[in-house]
Amino acid sequence: MSVFISGASSGIGEACARSFAAAHHNLVLVARREDRLKKLSQELRDQFGVQVTYFSLDVRDRIKLERLAQLHADVFQDVDILINNAGLARGRDVIQKGLPEDWDVVIDTNLKGLLYVTRTFLPGMIQKRRGHIVNIGSVAGHWVYQNGNVYCASKFGVRALSEALRYDLHGSGIRVTEISPGMVKTEFSHVRFDGDQEKADAIYAGRTPLNPEDIAESVLWCVQRPAHVNIQEIIIFPTEQPGVQPITPKLD
Ligand SMILES: NC(=O)c1ccc[n+]([C@@H]2O[C@H](COP(=O)([O-])OP(=O)(O)OC[C@H]3O[C@@H](n4cnc5c(N)ncnc54)[C@H](OP(=O)(O)O)[C@@H]3O)[C@@H](O)[C@H]2O)c1
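Above are the sequence and the NAP SMILES. Below is the predicted complex in structure-token form.
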């Protein structure tokens, strides 16, 4: 029995890997940056004595994913818990100035990548009549914020797919949970602003965001509920973020 985590090379995915390893789960980690996965895997094996397998994978690459699942069927068949975390935003322009190549990356990763990975594990989970899929959505999947357009659309899509999966898998015993975080301090903004650290830092200026560990704790808690309990969704904001809209300075 092991836990598959996409996007485990950084942020929320890496924190999930640490939390689940600490709870004695074996892990299968994927992301594109193999060097980071290698280092994290060794650290978790040494620290917690768990088995950790990692693969360099772009979740948009359906052919490579299928090949990995075939070549490493024993590893893939052992997965009971899937954490669909790999995701990103690119840019923060209005649609009329947005770059279609950025839209492709966001939609292909956040939606199609999640679908490809999920589809890979469903037959095995259905056969075993056991499994838990945790999708990392976003508050951007509940409310659109200014200039959030395509990223929000992708996360609205993740929410739709989480709901759809619960219907499609009805009777299988497989649970589907969505965790929808507000602002979390990770590499997310650095990636969104194409490496512009000043712009990324400005997002968190003057307030305390969530840590990736705050989200990982919730993911673990959902998975640890008894089999007849499915936490369908958790929305988690930092205390200092009342909603998705930008906030003006506090009134006296
Ligand atoms: N940070 C926030 O404020 C926030 C809020 C709500 C929701 N979220 C969601 O939380 C999830 C994790 O983001 P994060 O905040 O932890 O950001 P992060 O630190 O940038 O981590 C993103 C992870 O996704 C991986 N990834 C991106 N594209 C990928 C691809 N095509 N194939 C495989 N892996 C890919 C990255 O690994 P590689 O680059 O090595 O591939 C990285 O491990 C995302 O779905 C994001 O939308 C974040």
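The chain has a mean pLDDT of 97.
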